[in-house]
Amino acid sequence: MGIYLQNLRIVDPARDVDAPGSLLIRDGRLAEGEPGPEDQVIDCQGLAAAPGLVDMHVHLRDPGQTHKEDLFSACRAAAAGGVTSLLAMPNTSPPMDSPELVRELLARAKDADAAVYTSACVTLGLNGQLCADYEALKQAGAIAISDDGRPVASSQRLLEGLARAKELGLVFAAHCEDLELAKGGLMNSGKVSKRMGIKGIPPAAEDCGVAREIAAAASIGAPIHICHVSTQGSVALIRDAKRRGIKVTAETCPHYLLLTDRMLENMDADYRMNPPLGSQEDQLALLEALSDGTIDVIATDHAPHTPEEKADFITAPNGAIGMETSLAATLTALEGSLPLTKVIELMSWNPAKILGISAGTLAPGASADVVVFDPAKEWVVDPDKLHGKSKNTPFKGMRLKGKVVMTFSRGRQVFGSI
Prior knowledge:
Radius of gyration: 20 Å
Oligomer: single chain
């Protein structure tokens, strides 16, 4: 028995489609034709359907920190947000630096509510000194490498990693930060931090990291993906690199589009992340970068922490959850500035292309990864109603526009009720 979703607005930037239509799901794939007598027909009047979102920056906390999140709870949160494919970052405990760890994670993920891909470490133990065995990690199933959570400490190891990633066809995802400049900072260095008397992180901490990574990649003609861009300086560097033909792609996150460092005035650690929320000028630069193609992807940097860990503003770890709110927060932030097709391109088709995975389209024959949502519905984010283990959302209490109604992963309905 299949499922026939009718009276939809179909949004599929991979095929340049934004038009009324229907979708037929059979045997885990999207099929052509009309429904048969055995198919279930669902009227979706007023709703839109898009290829399931591809979140290429997620911290599963699995293995090692499953009190915060685990593979299955993260994928439940993903499904509730319309995310059907995700890339897990390797700063787990132990770090994802061995083929055995990669194989174990991917084997467990087969039964999860989203397709899970993983990045492996650039350096063993994320210590920046010895390169991991990338060929063995790729054979085990890794599709990317990153030392995310930290920059690659050694510039020599950075170059070696970039060169081998290029040879093997692995995505190199770079966390760009000058740790010396950032040391001891709790928020963006600016008017708000000075008024609060809190040590800030200068935007140069990110900008210098981005400049190093771009220079390294350019020197050997290797592609590089810049993670969680948050500053106007980084935007300018990436824009210039693209003009010069350097193979660079970049992502930003919904919280940088919708929030600024003013949110930290109440000293709530749920608004502390790394890189930190920036100024309004940074926010405007990011919005322009999405419009002109400087930034290719919107990802979440989903980073769960427990309420106890986030209780103290000064000692709390950085990070915020984001998968369940990513579509709504992005639609809210970009309303009136980007068309819906462009939003889906940034959140589904582009990351799928960068990662080289089979996702991001509603073409007949494609895997039935589908998000059905109401682009006009407003809702208030209640942390207690979210589906992951941790509740550290920076959008708590906010009214967002755009609500996921149903999510299908590989043809199976993983969120919503028919």
